Amino acid sequence: MKITSSTTPLVATLALLIGAKLVSAQTPAGTARAGGTAMLVGLPSEAAWQDFAFLAAVAASSKANEGVPLVLATSMDGTLPPEIVNFLARRNPGRIVRVGGAGQEDPTATQLEASNAVAAACVLSRSFFDQSAFVVSCADDDYSGALAGAVIAAREGAPLLFAQGAVLPEATRAEVARLGAKKVLYVGSLAVAGKELAGASCERLVEPTEAARWLQARGRTVDYLAVAAPADRAMGLRRKLSLSAAVLAAGRKGAIGLLGTSDEVTTDFDAARGDIATSLGPLANGLEHLCLAAGPDMIPMAVVAGTGAGIDTDPPSDLEYGNIDADPFVELAVGRFVAEDAAAGALLAARSLAYEHLFAPKAGGTLALAEWERAWAPLFANVGFAKPTLHEGGKPFTQDSPLASATAIVHSAHSSWLQLGETYMHDSRVLLAPCLVETGGCSPAALDSDPQQRSVALRLLRNGAVGFVGSVRRAVAQHELYRTEFWNAVLAGRSLGQANRHALNRALVACLARDEDKRAVLRYQLLNAAFYGDPALVLHLPSKPRTRTASAEIRGREVVVRAPAEWSRVEHYAPPDWKYEASPAIHGWRGAGVGVESSWDAANRRNHEVLVYTAEVRTERAVTGLTALDQPAAPTGWDGRYFVDEHPDGTRSVYFRVQLVDFDMSTGKVREKLERLRLRLQ
Question: By the number of CB atoms within 10 A of the CB, which of 197, 325, 335, 389 ranks highest?
Answer without folding.
Answer: 335
